[in-house]
Amino acid sequence: xxxxxxxxxxxxxxxxxxxxxxxxxxxxxxxxxxxxxxxxxxxxxxxxxxxxxxxxxxxxxxxxxxxxxxxxxxxxxxxxxxxxxxxxxxxxxxxxxxxxxxxxxxxxxxxxxxxxxxxxxxxxxxxxxxxxxxxxxxxxxxxxxxxxxxxxxxxxxxxxxxxxxxxxxxxxxxxxxxxxxxxxxxxxxxxxxxxxxxxxxxxxxxxxxxxxxxxxxxxxxxxxxxxxxxxxxxxxxxxxxxxxxxxxxxxxxxxxxxxxxxxxxxxxxxxxxxxxxxxxxxxxxxxxxxxxxxxxxxxxxxxxxxxxxxxxxxxxxxxxxxxxxxxxxxxxxxxxxxxxxxxxxxxxxxxxxxxxxxxxxxxxxxxxxxxxxxxxxxxxx
Length: 381
Ligand code: GLA
Hints:
Elements: H1 3-21, E1 30-38, E2 44-51, E3 57-61, E4 67-73, E5 79-81, H2 89-93, E6 102-103, E7 109-110, E8 114-117, E9 120-123, E10 132-133, E11 146-149, E12 156-164, E13 175-183, E14 188-197, E15 201-202, E16 206-207, E17 225-228, E18 232-234, E19 247-248, E20 260-261, H3 271-276, E21 280-284, E22 294-300, E23 306-312, E24 316-320, E25 329-330, E26 336-337, E27 344-348, E28 363-364, E29 370-380
Antiparallel strand pairs: 1-2, 2-3, 3-4, 4-5, 6-16, 7-10, 8-9, 11-12, 12-13, 13-14, 14-29, 15-28, 17-20, 17-22, 18-19, 18-21, 21-24, 22-23, 23-29, 24-27, 25-26
């Protein structure tokens, strides 16, 4: 062995030793799997935890594709869980608030539980007064999905697949659905949805996470500052079904084209706010459907400094200000969720589109591929 080889070898051992004792500035990203209990019929449910190199962490279960927790740094680097939810699977089995779940086959409402496609009328279960909400009595939020690790250089990623059979909850066609959650090192949780069918059907998929950027259960969300890239919204009747009109937000409490706190105008005398018991409406995103995710909305919480940017390929977003939370739910860590303790930004096609031929179409045909992407990107200011 030459002198140079010996010296180099010693040097390498020495450097390796230093690396082992030095504290690691960057955490290692990874993905782990642990049991999360059982469904009503005894099937095992798992919880997958994705961590990126900034220690941001997303815990997702294959039951309902639910985002159970999302730990995000504040401006001091302190992690808090910024989504509402439950600690235990049993509460998710009966989760009426749709915390964190994948919503399908059709997100939001279909009027009178009915629609016509190719001359056939389809009848759906009514689970919201006279309407169908979020896919019916047992939507995708209450189904067990098949999970697969599809991590890549873009980040750790969890693929969830589900086959919704022809006639399930009244919808036509066998629908094969895939949802991929990717956690990137840019503190983005990307959700990409795809689906194919063997018969003409309607599809509108979204995620129903409730955010509180100050930390789940820490108070109401009225001081969050919000911006939505939409000049119009779809006004509703008293059952929250769109009237069909696209109404300008200008001069109304629905104008979030400039930053405003959620609470600033929520109690104003306004028929639409009365119907929604606050904000529970679909905003018509400027630019319509896009081929790649474009800015849809942005929320900022001043105490923590956390910023949530929502980017999407979808033409609409349902901004829901947690008006049905009433203190009867005890969530994670025993926290009680009172009125407006969380808000949702559900990217979507417009509610009741199957009954509104003028709205962007939600029809999926055999041979075509449904594909949408939404990104929840976190940062601080
Ligand atoms: C959506 C609906 C609301 C409500 C919530 C779930 O945001 O538009 O009316 O049903 O889901 O509670």
